[in-house]
Amino acid sequence: MKKIRKGDQVVVICGKDKGRQSSVTEVKDNGKLLIQDINVAKKHVKPNPNAGVEGGIVSTEMPIDASNVMVVNPATEKGDRIGFKVDDTGKKVRYFKSNNEVVG
After folding, report:
1. Which of 10, 21, 66, 97 could form a disulfide with 81 if both were Cys (CB 3.0 to 4.6 A apart)?
2. Residue ranges of domains in the chain, CATH in brackets
3. Separation between Cα atoms, residue 19 and residue 48, nearest integer Å
């Protein structure tokens, strides 16, 4: 079970986009994340008529390491650390370490 999942609201804690909030669009196996409108780079793309790809300069989201983001706690609207615990039903859940609320 990963601490950060697809759809989580996160805040960037270091780098050029420090302080910006957005949601996770994809979690890669190597511990990297794709976050909507964060870490955007301009790539030069060659045209490929067979695939229907136009050439030019395209803005794409680049992966960012999971250690550079924190999940946003809705109660405080700030980044918070995540932990794991077993709830009353015996299910493993994620929770915010600051106020022990379960991540929704």
Report:
1. 97
2. 9-96 (2.30.30.30)
3. 37
CA 57 to each of CA 17, 36, 43, 44, 45: distance values in angstroms, whole numbers, following the listed order: 21, 19, 6, 5, 6
* Residue 78 backbone phi and psi in degrees, to 5: -130, 165
The amino acid at residue 48 is: N
Confirm if 57 and 44 have CB atoms less than 8 A apart: yes
Q: Return d(Cα 92, Cα 36) in angstroms, integer.
A: 28
Q: Give the pLDDT of residue 39.
A: 96
Question: What's the pTM value of the predicted model, to 2 decimals?
Answer: 0.85
Encoded tokens for 53: 């790809």
Long-range contacts at 90-97 (CB < 8 A, ≥ 24 apart): 92/1, 94/1, 94/3, 96/71
